[in-house]
């Protein structure tokens, strides 16, 4: 009698776990599927004060892969989503001295599709030489 109860439980579990063919059909998705990563892309330890702008760009100015986009659903093919480095550059004149600032993407903090100040780092050049790195240095320069 005990084996009958066990057999009945196994049958009920097997029936409850079954799937119909309709449940196995793929569902159409309208939006592209994105895989995004949150991480640091660049470590500023690779550059040192005194390097030329050309040397810094040789180390840091590579396209950064920030995620992947599914472009072929049937073949499950992905293409990389990239960002350029430096993100932007600008000139600054303080106390009759010219400075060039390159802003490099160093990591993604919030996956919101925008690059904010906490995701980039300024590298400050004077006369083609790196003289400072980071927001603190740039703020002191502006005083």
Described by strand count, sense and barrel closure, the largest sheet is: 4 strands, antiparallel
Measured distance between first and last alpha carbons: 89 Å
- CATH class descriptor name of the domain at 39-62 and 85-142: Alpha Beta
Uncertain segments are 19-30, 33-38
Mean pLDDT reading? 76
| Order of the strands making up the biggest sheet | 4-5-6-7
Beta strand %: 25-35%
Structure description:
This protein has 143 residues and is an alpha+beta fold. The chain has a domain at 39-62 and 85-142: Beta-lactamase Inhibitory Protein, Chain:B, domain 1 (2-Layer Sandwich), CATH 3.30.1450.10. The protein has 4 helices and 7 strands. The strands form 2 sheets. The chain has a 4-stranded antiparallel sheet with strand order 4-5-6-7, with helices on both faces. It starts with a helix and ends with a helix. The model is unreliable at 19-30 and 33-38 (pLDDT under 50).
Keywords:
elongated; 7 strands; alpha+beta; 143 residues; three-stranded antiparallel beta sheet; four-stranded antiparallel beta sheet; Beta-lactamase Inhibitory Protein, Chain:B, domain 1
Note the topology.
Blueprint: H1 2-16, H2 21-24, E1 34-36, H3 53-60, E2 64-72, E3 77-83, E4 88-94, E5 97-105, E6 120-126, E7 129-133, H4 135-142
Antiparallel strand pairs: 1-2, 2-3, 4-5, 5-6, 6-7
Précis, in short:
24% of the residues lie in helices and 33% in strands.
């Amino acid at each position: 009698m005990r084996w009958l109860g066990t057999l009945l439980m196994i049958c009920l579990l097997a029936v409850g776990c079954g799937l119909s063919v309709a449940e196995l059909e793929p569902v159409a998705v309208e939006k592209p599927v994105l895989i995004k990563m949150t991480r640091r892309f660049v470590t500023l330890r690779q550059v040192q004060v005194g390097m030329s702008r050309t040397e810094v760009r040789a180390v840091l100015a590579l396209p950064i892969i920030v995620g992947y986009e599914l472009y072929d659903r049937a073949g499950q093919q992905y293409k990389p989503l990239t960002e350029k480095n430096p993100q932007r550059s600008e000139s600054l004149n303080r106390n009759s001295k010219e400075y060039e600032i390159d802003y490099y993407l160093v990591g993604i903090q919030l996956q919101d599709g925008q690059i904010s100040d906490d995701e980039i780092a300024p590298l400050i050049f004077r006369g083609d030489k790196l003289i400072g790195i980071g927001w603190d240095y740039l703020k002191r320069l502006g005083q």
